[in-house]
Design brief:
The complex is a heterodimer of chains A (about 300) and B (about 170). By secondary structure, chain A is of the alpha/beta class. Chain A contains 10 helices and 8 strands. An 8-stranded mixed beta sheet of chain A has the order 3-2-1-4-5-6-7-8, with helices on both faces. In chain A, helix 2 packs parallel to helix 4. Chain B is an alpha/beta fold and about 170 residues long. Chain B has one domain: 3-Layer(aba) Sandwich (Cytidine Deaminase, domain 2). Chain B has 3 helices and 11 strands, in the order E-H-E-E-E-E-H-E-H-E-E-E-E-E. In chain B, the strands form 2 sheets. In chain B, strands 9-8-7-6-2-3-1-10-11 form a 9-stranded mixed beta sheet. Chain B has a two-stranded antiparallel ribbon with strand order 4-5. In chain B, a hairpin with a 5-residue loop joins strand 10 and strand 11. The radius of gyration of chain B is 15 Å and the shape is globular. Classes of the chains: A alpha/beta (about 300), B alpha/beta (about 170). At the A-B interface, helix 5 and helix 8 of A face strand 2 and strand 3 of B.
Amino acid sequence: MSRLDRQSFLGADSDRTLNELTVGYVGLGGGGSHVAQQAAHLGIGGHVLVDGDIVEDTNLNRLVSGTAKDAKDKRLKVDVAARTIKAVNPSARVKMCPVPWQQALEELKGCDVIIGGLDSVVAKDDLDRFCRRHLIPYIDMGMDVHDTGGAYLIAGQVVLSSPGCPCLRCFGVVTEDGLAQEAKRYGAAGSRPQVVWPNGVLASLAIGLLTQLVTPWHRGGVSSAYLEYDGNKNTVRSSPRVAMLGDRPCPHTSALETGDVRFDIRGDSKRKPSSPVAADGAAAQGATRRLLRKLGIFLRPAPET
Amino acid sequence: MKFTFKATPALFARARQDLARKHPFAHERVGFVFAGCARADDDLIVITARDYMPVDDEDYIRNPNVGAMIGSGAMRKGLQRAYATRSALFHIHTHGGRGTPEFSSVDLKDAQNFVPSFFNVVPAMPHGLIVLSNDSARGRVWGAPKKKPVYIHRFVSVGSPLVRYGEVA
């Protein structure tokens, strides 16, 4: 019996397929930490962990595998996720990028699928466009707690945005109004209420979409999805927007714009090593601290799910 | 350096459908794929297909010794578009059947003559040659006109399901 025997219904070759896959995680807070843990259990072999934050006490209500000691030691979130993944699958290929995702582009470009847990509408939009430019399916998670006048509504969504299919703008997850409101707050998404169980639901949905995408166990494959979660009614439904948009091509991005605009193969021999990716936690923390000191702009905690 | 070639299933399907059409006299069809490129880590270059362009019927030349011969008009159209869009240019044809296809010796010999000339028009991008089967592909890519071509390490159909094939060790 192997570790993955109980999921053999995913296909005769699913162990190999999952092991060869590399998934990028942008944001390893409440949502991302759940996703990384489940991906490790599922047998995903390659993991690119991107988050510049350290663990704080206020994260511990939802950060899977995060401990009080991690907060006390100011441990990086990527370090905590790597520890979790390696504990489940010691042979996993893990790259840690303790930087804002815009500084881990080379690592992300090599991913087969990217899963994002970002609150900022601008960041969601940018990451979705980045993924489309590089033909990478993007799974976006988001949750919010709305004050409805004395009562609260927990809501969230998981969207699969694939090249050639509707994007986050098509689905209305990214809107001009949302971008404008965030711009008024100088790009800050704000410190939103977050709890562990909706993040767990959304992370499970994200992993379900990922699995359907790479090792479909039924004929109804999925290349595009928008799942709406109502945390008060405890329901998940496919958004009516999916049926409404159908196979309509995305008008916001063009298939003719793939790749890097300034790519030049001739620069290859002069090329320097890629952005800093530390191989171990201690080195990563040191590198991040030095980087953060240099770049005061990144000292503000990145929004997370 | 490794090269991965990514395209949507729609683009692969469009190419296969077009290349499977009968030509009035040529035994097979050829086409062009235009692509962007990006550098990933681990010395990987990701080639991302943008569009497929068929070769017009009138741009084929009668030659009983080869499956298909195309004239300078077809090359000019492909190169013009590659130049205008700053794209990597791939000559593509199909051998049909199943499994990973192999290039014929004629394919490789001809490509050695014409692919390096693509760099005269778009020197910043890699260029190459792709052969399809009905469910897989094989590719050769040049990083520079005078460099030896290498096999495309892997093809990825970015759709549902997401499939990787044609892997070269």
